[in-house]
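Posting for a labmate who doesn't have an account.
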Amino acid sequence: MPSVIYHPAYRNYDFGKHHPFSPVRVEMALDLLDALGYTVNPVQPEPATRADILSVHEENFVNCVEALSSEVDVPDSARYGLGTRDNPVFPGMDEAARWIAGGTLHGARLIEQGERRVLQLGGGLHHARRDVASGFCIYNDLAVAIRYLSQRGFWVAYLDVDVHHGDGVQQILYEDMHVMTVSLHESGRYLFPGTGDIHELGSGPGRGLKLNIPLEPFTEGESYLETFEKVMSAALGQFRPGVFVVQAGADAHFDDPLADLMLTTHDYETLFNRILHLADTFAAGRVLFTLGGGYSLCAAPRIWAMLYLMIHDLPVPERLPAAWCDRWSRITGAWMPEEFHDPDLCYRPVTNREEIILRNRHVVRRLLDSASHYWV
């Protein structure tokens, strides 16, 4: 039986009422599963320790987070990415971020102890760097968990399907030969954080193991999944990981307000199925999922509830419970669909579709040509 990790303390990771990275998104997914008759009984983790956080972050940065968390003024806090519009300071910030990191780390420990499929209903804070908070991310829970696994002998394939480049995970693990990172994201030419080009291949012993697929805006599911297949089949055959860690951001959905990729819930179902198959094929089924970005209240809860159902081999229903739709429409003011999946004609067709497909294929060819020189 897959393990699901969650703690009510995750709700304290909250930048404020009007901030897009809201804990309500996960609450909606949990409530949807409950309304479908699948009440989640999660494993409850402990918060990460200071030593856990220092395994990937610099002490001066952690000191700053701790001080601001206790409402102590830090004059140079902006240099650490704190007190900004993306990362406003809030009381208890350090503890809240350590709870998130502790959940993902607990997932890694469960994998080490023999679990196959683990879902952390939170986390995915992939933008936090060694000494800088960024993009709604204070501590990098993913890097903490991946480092734990790699230090215990696992070869880790990190797969990031968030619409934004997984820059923090890449930076922290840039030289690590035990970790392959693969990030599919909207090109940094158009979208935060402006990184994730194909030339970012890692350094030192990690050269050739940091792979980026910068996709054109308005990329649809067919092209997205094609690039995924070509890169993953080539890369994993060389790297042969022992475990997958997946950042399952839901913001590549066409309804997401912060980006411009065009995936549907059907595309996400295909993608999650493929990831589970790859984990079975290469890593004896060992896979740790976290959440991440996803700012459409209509889409993100459905996508993450679907992920829960799929890792438990449960059917994805056709319709959403009417009571759930009514309740969350009233609470959020957002429109909720009647169907679980998006309809076939759910957005206006992209006019330059063929051009986008060709550009994405060109990116994949250039990436594989560059990276394969470093593969033995």
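Reply:
Got it, the structure tokens are right above this. The CA atoms of residues 221 and 352 lie 14 Å apart.
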